[in-house]
Fold each of these.
Amino acid sequence: MANNPYTESNRDAAHDTECHSDDDSKSDLLEAYRSDAEGHDLRTNQGTRIADDHNSLKAGERGPTLLEDFVFREKMNHFDHERIPERIVHARGAAAHGYFQPYKAAARYSRAGLFKDTSRKTPVFVRFSTVQGGRGSNDTVRDVRGFAVKFYTDEGNWDLVGNNMPVFFIQDAMKFPDFVHAVKPEPHNEIPQGQSAHDTFWDFVSLMPESAHMVLWTMSDRAFPRHYRYMEGFGVHTFRLIDREGKARFVKFHWKPLAGTHSLIWDEAQKLWGRDPDFNRREMWGDIENGDALEWELGIQVVEEDDEHAFDIDILDPTKLIPEEQVAVTPIGKMVLDRNPDNYFAETEQVAFNPGNVVPGIDFSNDPLLQGRLFSYLDTQMLRLGGPNFHEIPINQPVCPFHNHQRDAPHRQTINKGQASYEPNSIDGGWPTETPPAPENGGFESYNERIDAHKIRARSESFGDHYSQARLFWHSQSEVEQEHIIAAYTFELSKVERPWIRERVIQNILPNIDMELARRVGEAHGIEPPDHAPAVKEEFGKSALDSSAALSLLHRQQPDIRYRKVAILVANGVDGEQVEALQKKLEEEGAAGLTIAPSMAPVSTLQGGSLTPDAMLNGLPSVTMDAVVVAGGVDSVATLTGMGLGLYYVQEAYKHLKPIAGLGDARNLLDAAGISAPEEGIMQADSVDGIYADFREALLGHRVWSRDAKANQMPA
Ligand code: HDE
């Protein structure tokens, strides 16, 4: 028997050797689990070489299959168990690997190790998702997008599990199951998929005025981002950061896309459901494969503890935001997503986020929605991933070694050595041992908040104002954005069968946001709103601001035309030199000019050469592109003009407010399509140089907003 090694001096001896990860650490960890079959024999899971993978073992060539056939049984048995429950919300997602690198400002606010050193890159895995639809639903539906980031820090995993909108539908976690039951496909027929345009959703939200602000966000074009790279992200709740001196500050987290914000428009989003249901995930995947990383800045709004009550809203209320005009967003780091997963199931499906995963220097607030989430995520993974060992799944493992006395349970992989699976122990040297809190490499210590209260099931009076920030959002939108919101309410309510639900929205909810909004939506439904807003309880506060520029999608624009995709329409007889010249100019600026032809067959050029098209007209339709150029060449233009699909291509692009240019004879096609230059966003000239400056300018603006009213008349 060994000497008793349990002494205080031993316990104070060196803890873990310090963990120094870099942005490759997670990939290195995953490497041990990657499996590449190249050059290997086909074998069973028990390692036996398989001689025939086509035929089951039978009693005679035409006889029954034998139970003895372990090769068949193993294969079929594994296949039968391939599926796991999909996430109850956020089932459809796509993810990417990358890294986070802090700016100098970060360490001032938090002692968390990942903020300490501006040269260090912490690996991250980020999953974007829709909320309502099932795993096989469409990408571009009107919905909130999840924006979940797992930071694999030296001190453990930190999960910032946010959304692309800064507020939420409800104030208390107690209502989450009700909200989700209401928004999900209806229970009797499982309709509709990926949409909120149905009775149970509008029934619930019209009875829950606290949802008014968030519903307005989801009726805006924010609900269908053009690309994940153009999407803002928000932590939603107020969190706490703790600095090296132990001082806590309240913070709101923001992800600001370096490519600016940009969304689809509704008709385009709907058409994409059919044309490319995987649009968002395909674009992210393709860009990363091309080396075009996605980039965001992490920012924080900081509220000193003494200022907790300095606002006209309660900072613990998740249906409210803090306007950036009141508290500016301080950038504290940059995130880059530059590597696609190797396997969707192993990584994107099995990743398990939990807002309760924090590291020293980051802590929670008492937001009652956040508090409920701290229970729900761990709980949901137990079912979804089959038990409490899901942290051993490679994508979920922290990059630093971890030891504790948790043992056994289904699918345990770790082979724990030693006899003592308890603490304190004197048998295994007292290990693993606790780490006292410290400014650096300390153990986690919950923020020492004083709480002196009665147990009570109640909602704070300070959560009582449901409309003033909805009004703030409405007044912060551009005219076009407001029109789109009116159209969205009108469409959604048209799908609601019960008239009293429509009436409740138009007569009770909308007038409290804006009378004009109520009147316009009411007009489209033949429902008269009241002539003034019904009196509502707004005892707590009214937003001190009339509008906040940051709430408009148009506020944050990309400074260049990188990543933009331009369709160049070509057919036999096209001016190949023009096409090449345009492609070159676009490429120089990081944009792409893709040739789109009637078929995939090589296209002959005016110059006697040929070019291989990138896609067919209906293979990469205009809804997948940012702009369209019809190349010159009299025969090419005549062919495209004579085709329904050719005309449709430019008409649809016109309807979706995209820049359109015609080179040389292309004017014939534009005329036939009923689109004539000069008009803002329509360019026409004989050479690429003749259109390029204006075209580039229009492309930079993403869409030609002045065309919005006129575009509605386009039948495409
Ligand atoms: Fe979630 N949420 N949520 N949520 N949530 C889940 O966890 C839940 C909320 C968010 O890509 C579930 O693993 C409750 C707000 C994202 O894997 C579940 C409440 C925000 C994801 C769950 C909320 C989110 C989830 C389903 C209210 C933005 C996808 C599967 C109290 C700040 C993460 C899972 C991924 C997923 C519960 C509200 C974001 C059931 C109880 C607010 C991005 O645990």
Amino acid sequence: SLFHDASFYVSVNQFQDLPVHSGAEIAFAGRSNAGKSSVINTLTRRKKLAFVSKLPGRTQQINYFRIRDNLFLVDLPGYGFAKVPFEIRHHWESLLSEYLQTQKTLVGLVLIMDIRHPLKELDLQMLEWFSITGKPMHIILTKSDKLSRNRAHSTLKQVKDRLMLHYPSVSVQLFSSLKVVGVSEANEALYNWIEN
Ligand code: GDP
């Protein structure tokens, strides 16, 4: 599948240090503790590629993983962790918005949300920032194992209905890193971005 040969490439914490390359990047973003590292580890089948931590807000850098010669997976810093001091949060939020809006090699954004807390204010902020670029977005509602099958599917429908008005082209899916659910659906959605 798409992400299987991933290996660590570089970590950066300043905009001017972003690697220059001629390939494509797929970025992963989400609130701290949403389950982003676990999604990346599940998609790449690497247990510890992205660091899974019980301490939210630990991933304070942009981590690049090389998928193959011309394709990179970009793990963006988790946002929305209240205990991060304002100055640091401000630094990361400007870095995120600048990255999302100006990175030419970025082909699409994957937004990770805990299915129990979808579409929070900062998630909507990310949608707004990135939609300006006209590039595709895919939402992964993870930890779906935390809800019953019915509740998970009704949440999926609610999220789709809410996006319909302003972001009709954004795709949404259920995922569970714990139960390994939704991997092929995610692969399919993201594969389309690099095929074109
Ligand atoms: P990140 O901060 O967004 O990278 O989130 P992590 O991947 O570190 O996950 C945060 C917490 O949620 C950890 O305690 C994980 O074990 C847990 N978690 C992540 N994904 C799942 C999932 O699919 N199901 C369940 N039940 N727990 C999960």
